Amino acid sequence: MADPLVFVVGLQMQAAATAAEALETLRLSLVSRRTATLAARLSAALQYRSWQAVSGAGWPPDETEAFRFVNAVASAKHAPSRAQRFLEMLNFLQHVLMCTVLMPVTASKRLQGFAQEMTARLGVRQQASVVCMGTLRLLEDLVLDGTSDELDVVLAGTFLIMFTLRARYGDLANMIRLGLD
Fold first, then answer.
1. Cβ distance 61 to 99 under 8 Å?
2. Would you say the pTM of this structure is higher than 0.70?
3. Where are any strands of DSSP class E within the chain?
4. 41-74 residue pLDDT tens
5. Residue 11: what are its φ and ψ, rounded to 5°?
6. 156 within 8 A of 167, measured Cβ to Cβ
7. Gap between the Cα atoms of 82 and 59, Å rounded
């Protein structure tokens, strides 16, 4: 998809003496990023790549090509948030992998405005109801009573751990060991 030499990190990887050093350069560049963030940026990049193959657009995209892409995605009845995700991917490439040629694209007020307008179409998001003590007590009783189905106990325990740790499901899915005092 992209010429790796467009990125400063790509130049650093090319200057590495061995393949292992090149991979270590990339790993260190991405070490502070969550896997969910990386997956979201990859998803947006793959969507652009699919469109690029059909449209004949180049890489890196200029502002006009980027605007054509977000319009094509919007007119194809895709999720309104795709334009915003595409901009987030371009910002990621610019700031994390140092693809400085994307600066005019990410600074485009036209692209930013389009993405904001599309995101506004999602409507007002409603916050989930607050978890009250009664619900927590019910979950705790379900875990402790000993008569509940194993699946119910595991699910209730998972929700209690998530609440206690203020964790998301993805945090728990990647948890290897939990030590309790």
1. no
2. no
3. none
4. 888 888 888 898 889 888 888 999 999 999 888 8
5. -65, -40
6. no
7. 19
